[in-house]
């Protein structure tokens, strides 16, 4: 009897697991997925995945670029969000920042990626240039979503690379200032262009990140803009894991503003 119960439990676990897997893969089962190597201006090879619809169409589609956080990799971005974006007519790119995942290692200590504007922003330059040269992508409708350092890179792309819209999750002032050159103490000394079409998301108990995101939201963003906070001490991908509704916020934002 005990063995039978154990067997039934194992079967039930497999059924649930398969159900979860099917739910996760919804929207990407019939999509095209290509592994792409992006060549950066400083000669590194950046590894990424490109997801597009398998249905042929004459219409150009918008594209969303997903950027992981420090000491993570592109697999952070799960099939569920990618599938939902595909189902809503977005093409999707996710990639490994230099010195992460399958991408080449930078010639600097990994910690410098958080502060050197001549490093990780160049990865994003190569990804955006690649996307703009694809026949099926509308070059005027590129969006970026990122967590932590990925959030700072999203703002870099908004300020300097001409993307249309962005979502920045767990954005800190240090990486924002270092990777954009927009320092709070210079606010009264120079005109810093604000960027539109941005959403910030953060946990209210995530150290100083919530307050720092508020400073960036107030001083560097212009309408339309939104700032969503969650009662949590979690950061980046862990915040997203605890609050799956963040996926819906990302999707809805890009549906409206991309």
Which key phrases capture this entry?
eight-stranded mixed β-sheet, 8 helices, Rossmann fold, alpha/beta
Would you write up a description of this structure?
By secondary structure, this protein is α/β, with parallel strands linked by helices. It has one domain (43-257): Rossmann fold (3-Layer(aba) Sandwich), CATH 3.40.50. The chain is 38% helix and 22% strand. The protein has eight helices and eight strands. It has helices at 2-25, 79-87, 120-132, 149-160, 173-180, 209-220, 237-242, 245-257; strands spanning 32-39, 45-52, 61-67, 91-95, 137-147, 165-169, 198-203, 225-230. It has an eight-stranded mixed β-sheet with strand order 1-2-4-3-5-6-7-8, with helices on both faces. Strand 1 (32-39) and strand 2 (45-52) form a beta hairpin. Helix 4 (149-160) runs parallel beside helix 5 (173-180).
Structure described in brief:
This protein has 258 residues and is of the alpha/beta class. It has one domain (43-257): Rossmann fold, CATH 3.40.50.1820. The protein contains eight helices and eight strands, in the order H-E-E-E-H-E-H-E-H-E-H-E-H-E-H-H.
Itemize the secondary structure elements and their pairings:
Elements (H helix, E strand, L loop, with lengths): L1 H24 L6 E8 L5 E8 L8 E7 L11 H9 L3 E5 L24 H13 L4 E11 L1 H12 L4 E5 L3 H8 L17 E6 L5 H12 L4 E6 L6 H6 L2 H13 L1
Parallel strand pairs: 3-4, 3-5, 5-6, 6-7, 7-8
Antiparallel strand pairs: 1-2, 2-4
């Amino acid at each position: 009897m005990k063995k039978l119960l154990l067997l039934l439990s194992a079967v039930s676990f497999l059924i649930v697991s398969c159900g979860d897997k099917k739910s996760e893969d919804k929207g990407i089962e019939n999509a095209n997925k290509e592994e792409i190597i992006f060549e950066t201006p400083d000669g590194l090879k950046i590894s990424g995945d490109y997801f597009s619809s398998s249905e042929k169409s004459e219409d150009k589609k918008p594209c969303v670029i997903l950027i992981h956080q420090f000491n993570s990799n592109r697999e952070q971005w799960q099939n569920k969000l990618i599938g939902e974006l595909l189902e809503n007519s977005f093409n999707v790119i996710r990639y490994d920042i230099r010195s992460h995942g399958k991408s080449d290692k930078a010639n600097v200590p990994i910690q410098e990626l958080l502060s050197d504007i001549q490093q990780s922003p160049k990865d994003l330059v190569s990804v955006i240039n690649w996307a703009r040269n694809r026949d099926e992508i509308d070059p005027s409708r590129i969006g970026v979503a990122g967590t932590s350092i990925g959030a700072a890179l999203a703002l870099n792309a908004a300020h300097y690379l001409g993307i249309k819209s962005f979502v920045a999750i767990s954005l800190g002032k240090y990486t924002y200032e270092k990777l954009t050159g927009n320092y709070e103490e210079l606010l009264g000394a120079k005109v810093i262009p604000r960027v539109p079409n941005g959403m910030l998301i953060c946990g209210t108990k995530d150290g100083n990140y919530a307050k720092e995101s508020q400073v960036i939201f107030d001083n560097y963003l212009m309408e339309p803009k939104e700032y969503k906070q969650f009662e949590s001490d979690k950061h980046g991908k862990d915040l997203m894991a605890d609050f799956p509704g963040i996926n819906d916020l990302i999707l809805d934002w890009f549906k409206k503003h991309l």
